[in-house]
Specification:
Ribosomal Protein S5, domain 2; four-stranded antiparallel β-sheet; globular; alpha+beta; about 290 residues; 2 domains; about 30% strand
Length: about 290
C-alpha cells in the first residue's frame, strides 16, 4: 500500500434536469466546470481506525471504509479532502468529494476502480452527479447510472450569483417531483434538443435549453432572481441561464470565443452584483 491521490471536477448546476416518462426517470445533464475536489489517502497498517479531514466529510469516510472492506484490508488510515467547490450550492461538491476519494483509495491499494464500480458504491450513499465521466453526460442521479455520453462543448464562461443558504442533496431528492405527464414529455423533447445541440456544438441552443429547464424547475425549487438573471442575460447578449436545480446558484452562459465576451462578462458581473449582491465567474471544461 502507498499514498493515493486523485481529483474530480465539479459542475455548475445542470444544463437540464427533470423527470422522463419512464420508471426511475429522474435525470440530469452535467455542465463540468474547472473547479475540483482533491483526495489524498494515506493507509496505516498499524491501526484499523479511519480518519477524515475535514471531519464533516463523513460520506467520504464511509466510502473509504467500503472500499477497504471489499479489498479485504482491515488497515486504517487518513483521508484528506481539499475542494474549491462550495458546499450545498448545486455544484456537485459532494459527488466530486466521493469520486476523488474512490479514485485515491483505489490508487493507494492498487485496486481497479472503473466508473461502474464507483457508481455501485455511490448508489449506497447518496444521489450523485455524473462527475466520474470526462464528458457532458445524461445521468440518472437518483439511481446512479449513466444514461448517455453526450460529448464536449467549447469552453464557456459562467457569470454566477448565489441566492444564499445551502441545500442537502439527500433531503432534496426525497421530495416528490410535482411534474405532470405533459412536463415529462417536454423533458423528453428538451433532452433530444440538448443531445443534438451538443453534437452540433450549438452553444445558442444549449443556452436556450438550459433556460427552459431553469424555468420548469421553479415549481420544485423557486429562485427569486431567475427573471432578473434572464433579463441580464438578454441585455448582455448571453447564451442562456443555467441553474443548480437542487442548489442556490444561477449563472449566465457566455461564449468565450466571441470577441464581445470581455465586455459581456464585465456588464453581466456588474448587473449580477447589483441584483443578488455577489458574483463569481466560472469556466466550463472542454474535453476536446
Amino acid at each position: 500500500m502507498t499514498t493515493g491521490v486523485s481529483t474530480a471536477f465539479g459542475t455548475f448546476g445542470e444544463l437540464l434536469q427533470g423527470v422522463l416518462p419512464e420508471e426511475d426517470g429522474d435525470f440530469l445533464v452535467t455542465l463540468p466546470v474547472a473547479r475540483w475536489a482533491m483526495a489524498r489517502f494515506e493507509p496505516d497498517p498499524a491501526t484499523d481506525v479511519l480518519h477524515v479531514w475535514p471531519p464533516h466529510k463523513k460520506k467520504a469516510l464511509a466510502l473509504t471504509a467500503m472500499i477497504m472492506e471489499d479489498a479485504g484490508l482491515p488497515a486504517g488510515g487518513l483521508l484528506r479532502i481539499h475542494s474549491t467547490l462550495p458546499e450545498g450550492k448545486g455544484l456537485a461538491s459532494s459527488s466530486a468529494d466521493l469520486v476523488a476519494t474512490a479514485r485515491a483509495v483505489a490508487n493507494a491499494l492498487d485496486e481497479a476502480m472503473s466508473p461502474r464500480r464507483i457508481e455501485a458504491y455511490l448508489a449506497r450513499i447518496e444521489p450523485t452527479d455524473g462527475v466520474l465521466y470526462s464528458s457532458i453526460v445524461a445521468f440518472h442521479h437518483r439511481t446512479v447510472r449513466l444514461r448517455a455520453v453526450l460529448g464536449s462543448l467549447p469552453s464557456m464562461a459562467v457569470v454566477a450569483a448565489d441566492e444564499g443558504g445551502a441545500v442537502d442533496t439527500v433531503a432534496f431528492n426525497s421530495i416528490p417531483k410535482p411534474f405532470t405527464a405533459t412536463d415529462k414529455r417536454e423533458y423528453v423533447r428538451l433532452l433530444d434538443r440538448i443531445t443534438g445541440a451538443i453534437a452540433r456544438r450549438d452553444l445558442a441552443e444549449v443556452g436556450r435549453v438550459a433556460t427552459a429547464s431553469a424555468r420548469m424547475n421553479q415549481v420544485l425549487r423557486h429562485k427569486w432572481s431567475l427573471d432578473g438573471m434572464t433579463d441580464i442575460c438578454r441585455e448582455v447578449g448571453g447564451l442562456g441561464v443555467v441553474v443548480g436545480h437542487s442548489g442556490t446558484t444561477l449563472g449566465i452562459l457566455l461564449d468565450t470565443a466571441s470577441p464581445d465576451c470581455p465586455a459581456q462578462l464585465a456588464a453581466a458581473a456588474q448587473a449580477c452584483q447589483e441584483l443578488v449582491g455577489n458574483v463569481t465567474v466560472y469556466r466550463t471544461l472542454s474535453f476536446d
